[in-house]
Amino acid sequence: MRRFTYETFAARVVFGAGCAQGSLAAEVERLGARRPLIVTTPRTAPLATTLAGPLSVAGTFDGVRPHVPVETVHQAIELAKRTGADAVLSVGGGSTTGTAKAIALRTSLPIVAVPTTYAGSEVTPVWGMTEGARKTTGRSPLVVPRTVLYDPDLTTTLPAAMTAASAMNAMAHCVEAFYAPGANPVTDLVAAEGVRMIADALPAVMSRPADAAGRAGLLYGAYLAGSAFGAAGSGLHHKICHVLGGAFGLPHAETHTVLLPYVAAFNEPVVPALRTRVAPALGADDTARGLTRLAARIGAPASLAQIGLAEDDLDTAVRLVLEKDFGDNPRPVGEPEVRGILTAALRGESV
Ligand code: NAD
After folding, report:
1. Chain segment 41-73, per-residue pLDDT in tens
2. Which residues, 6+ apart, have CB-to-CB distance to 3 below 8 Å?
3. What angle do CA 232, 319, 94 make, to 5 degrees?
4. Fewest 10 Å CB contacts: which of 6, 37, 214, 287?
5. How far is Cα 24 from Cα 39, in angstroms, rounded to an integer?
6. Residue 147 CB–ligand 1 contact under 6 Å
7. Do the beta carbons of residue 210 and residue 110 sit within 8 Å?
8. CA of 162 to the centre of ligand 1 (A)
């Protein structure tokens, strides 16, 4: 058994169809909170209002925007202070949870999170905020929601493209957890089960969006993915995605889906667990091919070219990616390796 450090992030997790409606008020009261501030988007605001029905809320902030701009956080904090909020009730996807986390970072208010996508942010200590074009991220126990209510019924309204993209983002959290800096035997265990749940449930949900068992499997897989990612941290794959998203405006989740098999294929020779744990959970002989097959089954894009990267962008992309520090990747990463991964992913070459 290898030596390891495993830090868990305490959160009370309530999971089950209908739990958001049935248990939210009791869970908020359990924290001793009386006047939570609802944080949500315009699209999820009606749901948040319904769920919070029995509670005496301080107010509703529905100005959540992608990438958590600091101005948005200031507005939400101002509303929380003005209304005497004593907790944050976050109802929505990763951007909403991210906004709630930023509020908590500055105010120490406890968060009750009701996730409606598969982002997994609700169980990680990672926060991020954007000021102008600059994104700052960090880790703090202050931002970990105190209670998370996972209700698969709330995810049935996710459009198909968003379901696929969000679930493959969770899949990337699981796969990357096997070689990210904090990877350990416990994150291996959690992430392997996450892979299995997502791979089993996603094709079913894509053909039947209201499939209750499939939606529950995906949300449970997303919870496991977030837990593994929160403890293991991010690695090669997330760093490349971050560069491609920032420099070329490629869509975050689709970039994950396309790139993941190529990064997995690159690391597989030096990370035996990818072959022994992840591939079987995908029902495949190797991880890269298992991921490609899953992506094809759900009709996901197969090349970076399809989602907006041009051949002419390749040199710039390689140069920008190489500005990152890959010292913690288990296989050395230099110019030829980055060029190889990006070229293959750009053209959708077979793995
Ligand atoms: P999102 O939160 O930006 O939501 C996208 C859109 O989907 C929004 O318009 C939202 O209103 C809508 N939506 C949400 N749930 C819905 C539902 N059930 N039905 C219909 N529409 C719904 O997207 P996301 O993919 O959940 O989150 C992405 C963000 O989360 C990224 O910025 C990413 O960096 C961040 N993230 C952070 C962590 C972390 O640990 N800090 C982890 C994963 C993702």
Report:
1. 999 999 999 999 999 999 999 999 998 999 999
2. none
3. 40
4. 6
5. 15
6. no
7. no
8. 9
The whole-angstrom separation of Cα 266 and Cα 285 is 15
| Ligand 1 centroid, distance to 167 Cα (angstroms) | 11
Q: Which residues contact 272 (CB under 8 A, 6 or more apart)?
A: none
**Structure token pair of residue 151:** 């209700």
Q: Classify the phi-psi angles of 299: left when phi > 0, otherwise alpha if psi is within -120 to 50, otherwise beta.
A: left
pLDDT at residue 8, rounded to an integer: 87
Residue 269 has pLDDT above 90, yes or no: yes
Helix axes 212-232, 160-176, angle to 10 degrees: 40
Which atom of ligand 1 is least distant from the CA of 128? 41
> What is the per-residue pLDDT across 188-203, written as a single tens digit (0 to 9) for each?
999 999 999 999 999 9
User: DSSP assignment of 145-210, as one string?
Assistant: -SEEEE-GGGGTTS-HHHHHHHHHHHHHHHHHTTTSTT--HHHHHHHHHHHHHHHHHHHHHHH-TT
From ligand 1's centre to the CA of 276, what distance in Å?
31
Question: What integer pLDDT is reported at residue 40 of this predicted model?
Answer: 98
Instruction: Give 150-184 pLDDT, tens digit per residue.
Output: 999 999 999 999 999 999 999 999 999 999 999 99
User: How far, in Å, CA of 216 to CA of 222, rounded?
Assistant: 10
Q: 283: number of CA atoms within 13 Å, CB side?
A: 9
Q: Which of 35, 30, 38 is nearest to 14 (CA)?
A: 30
For residue 60 and ligand 1, the question of a CB distance below 6 A is answered with no
Q: How confident is the model at residue 14 (pLDDT cuts 50, 70, 90)?
A: very high
